[in-house]
Amino acid sequence: MIQQPPTLFPEITNTVRGRFYIVAGIISVVMAVASIAIFWWIFYQLDAVAAEKAKPQADLLRQSQSIYVNYVYLPTDAYITAESLAAMNAYIAANPQPQAVQVLKGMNTAQISAYMVSQVSGGLKVDCSYCHNIANFAQEDGYPNAAKKVTARKMMQMSADLNQNYTAKLPASVGNYQITCATCHNGKAAGLEPYPIEIMNTLPNDWRLPLNLDYPGGLVVTGRKDISNAEVERNQFTMYHFNVSMGQGCTFCHNSRNFQSYEIEQKNHASIMLQMTKHIQETYVAPGGRIADGIMAGKSPSCWLCHQGARIPPGAAQPGQVPAVLSSTP
Asked: Which of 222, 267, 287, 293 could form a disulfide with 253 if both were Cys (CB 3.0 to 4.6 A apart)?
């Protein structure tokens, strides 16, 4: 057996080793503390930067929610050019009282411009030049988009009509929300598709709401044996459309033990909305409708057009945000 030679000065070796461990430990602790401190310093710096970046979005969200229900708002300069804004400000300064106003009566130029920016341009996310000649906002014809200005007026008249004759019938407990541009357009200039293929699912692609019926009562079956299979299928298709459009089940409107009853208030609300949808079809879409030309581009209305899977339509205006002349209480 080979023996190790004795260590010279064992007391010195142990002392050095002990000091080494102490120094190494101190260095490790310092590095660990420094690493943690650097990590949190970087974290808070990045968090501050993120918070600063998020502030405009948070402000926009608050501004949006003060006007609309669940609507994605954008900064004004995201869709209105600096040239248009400058032209609008110059027009307001030159014409404190509006020129050629046909619908928004009782408002001054600044009030009309504020509504146009937040709810017309904001609802369609388009520039002022989409409808106006920004060199002269009061010009009626003789420029490329003059026809769109005419259509926009009809749309405002339609909104006023629907608010005053249909949403006004809904109780205040529903929220007193108002129809405005964003309710149906939701940021799309051409408006939303009333029957997009992705929500039809098991429905025939050419199915439409049965707006030839009278409401309330048009869809009542109540277990009668003289009702045809076609009528039952029509009702089933309609109820499926309601479910998808509003994101609600049958019992949102119905007493599951007595489907024919009207004890749940939402069933009465649904009847009012069906009356409104039928009115839109007959007045603004059907050939010979009162102001049908071009206003709905031939699209038949649907529940999805406004609700888009939500109980309260995204883009519905909060109470008091729509100009009085367009609201349910003009």
From this structure: 267
